[in-house]
């Protein structure tokens, strides 16, 4: 389960801390954008972990289905991984439908965490698990997925709070596109090309 530690140093601890998004109207615009971007990165990382867990859930369910069918055949789940994962990718979307342009920053850490949920079991030996072990594995993945999804929704609410405040400032004229461009030029340094206009 993903726990948020009050006063913790991890990004999720900061983003979901009580005061992080409580008064966005009081924040300077650069701080507002910085916090929005930090929360958006956390959302991206949680989405990545959620996709990892969905893939593992699909694999375990496919093995359970194979065992319960009349024609178990010789083709095990490992041999059918591409089809199993493609079915998930092509199925109806179950997420928020938000477009994400960021890359996950903790991919390796999350992959190890997902693998650790079933102890020594990994995707290549799912066929060697007993029926009870498969059930326990599926339950473990589902519980973790539920926890990740809950935290992801909480982080999305933080991102939405900051986006709404930024949009409000633009709508009321207290922020401008020129100001944004100036801050981006300043951040890119003196080596950046000047606008020809």
Automatic annotation (TrEMBL):
Domain annotation RsiG-like: ranges: 20-85, 121-182
Residue segments, region Disordered: 173-197
Entry-linked Pfam families: RsiG
Top-level taxon of the source organism: Bacteria
Transmembrane region(s): none
Secretion signal span: none
Protein name according to UniProt: RsiG-like domain-containing protein
Origin species: Prauserella alba
